[in-house]
Amino acid sequence: MSKTIMIVDDSASLRQVVKIALSGAGYQVLEARDGQDALTKLEGQKVHLVISDVNMPNMDGITFVQEMKKKPEHKFTPIIMLTTESEESKISKGQAAGAKAWVVKPFQPAQMLAAVQKLAL
Amino acid sequence: MRVFWVSSLSITLIAALGIMIAANFSLDGCMGAAGFAVAAITGIAFSTRHLAFVLSQAAPVQIVAPAPVAAENEVEKLCRRVLKLWNQHVELARGQTEDAAIALAENCTHILNRVQKTLEASESTNGYATLAVAIKSAETRLTTLVESMKSALEVKESLLSDITVLSKSIEDLKKMATDVSTIASQTNLLALNAAIEAARAGESGKGFAVVADEVRKLSNLSDETGKKIIKKIEMVGEAMSGTVRSANEYAEKDHAMLAGSQSTIAAALGEFEQAAGRMSESTAKLAYENLTIHDEISEVLISLQFQDRVNQILMQVQQDMHKLTDCLEERATMIATGQSRPELDAAHWLKEMEPSYTMQEQRATHNGLAEIVQVKNKPVQEIRFF
Predict the structure, then answer these.
(1) Distances in Å between the alpha carbon of B141 and those of B249, B257, B259, B271?
(2) Which of B117, B176, B286, B339 is the most buried (most CB within 10 A)?
(3) C-alpha–C-alpha distance, residues B151 and B135, integer Å
(4) B108-131 b/e with 16+ CB inside 10 Å = b?
(5) Which pTM value belongs to this model?
């Protein structure tokens, strides 16, 4: 059975890029356009890993990770932050919120795939 | 203050120019989408430099210390009217660039899927291995067939040899038949002498004369029979000679045909093997090309992500344009209601802008440290694991 990954990003093209990078390796990829949308879609949905942007409308990535970690069924789901942000202060916030990795855009598809393979439970 | 105006005006006009350039590109398919994105970004870069120059030549804008109830100046009026329009143009450029990037990403997906399916089809048929097995099987069967033909020829040659031996016996038979004729002739002569002697004996030899006559008749019959035997033997001999001659001719043709068949089979199998070799090379080349296409598409996917970066820059610009529009509207209302306008603090405005940046390049640009980084030269950063 293939593993399910959720990509949370307000850029549809970026979501598509992530989908291409992962679906070729057999992952099923779910899409959410922001943190709020992701929380709604995660209700009753088993995911093996979440990739999230930081700067998004409605609910930003850091808040989303904090909210997601409050849910018992998703408490241990690994999260990769995928963002244009490279400020140390932002990276520290992501780590404190519970993210497992920080990826600065643009990413290498093979690099992202390797990270997902390493972290997806 | 002039720096502030230059920044806002430049970026809004950038979008309009980007759209105008992009409109010249076809949006049909992948290359159209890519062309649009490149054109919009090129437009932005060009417009920034051009407008910075034009506005630097304009008259200084008096914002810092206006008269308490002075009328709205022309630059403020102009900006208030055009800022909304520019904002819409930036939104339009942003939307169209995003649509083009999505189309490009989808095209990449289709290309990858098609390449993958082609490779899988090529690998699943396992053409080379199948063909190699078929060739080996055909070789075994054809070799067996040639061996059978050889055996048949050997049997035929053995038969021919027997017939040749038999045809030599014909001569012996002919000689024996000739001997029969010779004996009959001598018997005839003997019977004739006996008849003469019987006639000389007179009345007492009459009985013997009858016997001698019968013997002569029998010798004549024996002679005729001997001659008939010779004739028949000659006929049989001729027929056998003809058969042996024909059989020899056919045997030569059979040998030539066998040799021809062997060389034809060898040539055909050789061609099949060469075709199989070429097929194997094609499969290997296809696999290599597939990997190359994957690598190239990976590069395209990296380039596509810059659309997201451009989008974020433009969104930040739009937010600031909104803020400026609101500020100008508020000031216009103050003028209309006779209120005095507060002093605009450009340094504070700029300070407020800085935290809204998400990228290192934006911060560097803001602080005048911008260096133009070509998209293709921007390194991909390592993933940081916690």
Answers:
(1) 29, 18, 17, 17
(2) B286
(3) 24
(4) bbebbeebeeebeebeeeebbeeb
(5) 0.60
Confidence category of residue A36, pLDDT binned at 50, 70, 90: very high
Write out pLDDT tens, residues B98-111.
888 888 888 888 88
**B383 CA: distance to closest CA in chain A (Å):** 5
Task: List CB contacts (< 8 A) between A112 and chain B.
Answer: 383
Q: Do A106 and B311 touch (CB under 8 A)?
A: no
Check CB contact of B308 with chain A, cutoff 8 Å.
Answer: yes
CA distance B283 to chain A (A): 21
A95: nearest CA partner in chain B: B386
List beta partners, residue A103: A82
| Stated length of chain A | 121
Tell me if B358 and A55 make a contact (CB, 8 A cut-off): yes
Burial B331-342 (b: 16+ CB within 10 A, else e): beebbeeeeebe
Mean pLDDT on B43-50: 44
- Average pLDDT on B362-369 reads 84
